[in-house]
């Protein structure tokens, strides 16, 4: 672990930004520019496709392909981001597991506020099931807002009577639209990315007047997690959303869910994006890949054909 690496990443994230709330266009352009500098593994096969009613990026390993599918949901506060901005995360999970991934281009607020994103993810999951994929070979994964979607979509599909995926991996998930976690205040000024004000700006676009006091918006404090699949929650100590993960883990444990809370010291929100630059990012992705390969089932037919 390198203090120098963490200092360098922190300094990059603390570069001066415009004062006051930014326009949607500025938020999207700025995030796109920042994520374009992330390192993506070599040898991946990338194909544009459609899943459900939405475009998606199909990401496959160039070699060492294994049976298993990751349905990935990008971050961006439900307002910005795309499968391309999340490619450092999706690509590293694919390269480390040998699974294929579909990174979904779900609809964004303010044009399409809550619950549009959840509807799109639910439709994409239905499409995978309708294509013949076994839910035991599918894992949900996502970062930030997408990490939140990995959990809220499980609530929606349970209500719809659909089977759960094999596992959930959530990087720094956003899980509390009420913003009541203590870290919202204790990490203020320590977090190099977010403030309560900035989260409120994009959060209001997604809510569009909806009451945040409901499970699909604040699962860390309101959701019944009975029957959920095993989940891995990764976060850093330097983020205001830290308590979204800690409270979700406690809630999962209380519901009898297999949950791993994986907290890394002195790193920012979605630090895993800095794979190849930050040792902690590569180590966290290794742990996430191990979690997935241990929980995504390889069908007997695939095992037999490999003999």
Strand order of the largest sheet: 1-2-4-3-5-6-7-8
Q: What form results from the Cα inertia axes?
A: globular
Tally of strands? 8
Class by alpha and beta content: alpha/beta
What Rg do the Cα atoms give? 18 Å
Q: How much of the residues is beta strand, in percent?
A: 15-25%
Give the number of helices: 11
Distance between the termini: 40 Å
Under CATH, the topology is which? Rossmann fold
Query: What is the CATH superfamily label?
Result: Alpha/Beta hydrolase fold, catalytic domain
The percent range for helix content is: 25-40%
CATH class: Alpha Beta
Number of domains: 1
- Low-confidence runs of at least 5 consecutive residues: 302-307
Order of SSEs, N→C? HHEEEHEHEHEHHHEHEHH
Could you write a compact summary of the structure shown?
This protein is of the alpha/beta class and 307 residues long.
Give the helix/strand layout.
Elements: H1 3-13, H2 24-35, E1 45-51, E2 54-60, E3 69-73, H3 87-97, E4 100-104, H4 116-130, E5 138-143, H5 145-159, E6 167-171, H6 183-186, H7 196-207, H8 219-222, E7 231-236, H9 242-254, E8 259-264, H10 279-295, H11 300-305
Parallel strand pairs: 3-4, 3-5, 5-6, 6-7, 7-8
Antiparallel strand pairs: 1-2, 2-4
